[in-house]
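User: My instructor asked us to take a sequence, write out its structure as tokens, and then describe one feature of it. I'm not sure where to start. Here is the sequence I was given:
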Amino acid sequence: MKFTSVWFIGALMTISAVAYTQPTYDPECYAKAQYAQDAQRCNQIRHQHFDRILNQSYQALLKKQSKTGQKSLRQIQRAWLQERDDVCHELVAKAVVSAGQIGDACFADWTEERALTMRVWLQKNKRF
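Assistant: Let's start with the prediction itself. The structure tokens for your sequence are:
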């Protein structure tokens, strides 16, 4: 009975680890995509990847700011988020076909660009 319980718990832990594993970003994903859904999944994974980088860089940059700088950076980031959302939602609303692909690509593009910008700001020790 103990062996069965230990095996069952081990199996559950393995399944949970697999279920929560994030897909790895592959810059060659688009070249490998065979179908539109594959390209859309590439955009989703790219968005998640750069969103993590953006969040890590933002948090690190925020810690380096004065109280006034933190407030300014938060306002700048909120304005950027609003602009990104407005632009991407407008593109999706105008899309006749492939709205999901267009939206995912838009969010991925904006987030990648912002993540790289935020990383440069962090490296340059930018103050707000």
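For the description part of your assignment, you could build on this observation: Helices lie at 2-19, 29-32, 36-63, 67-94, 99-123. Try explaining in your own words what that tells you about the chain.
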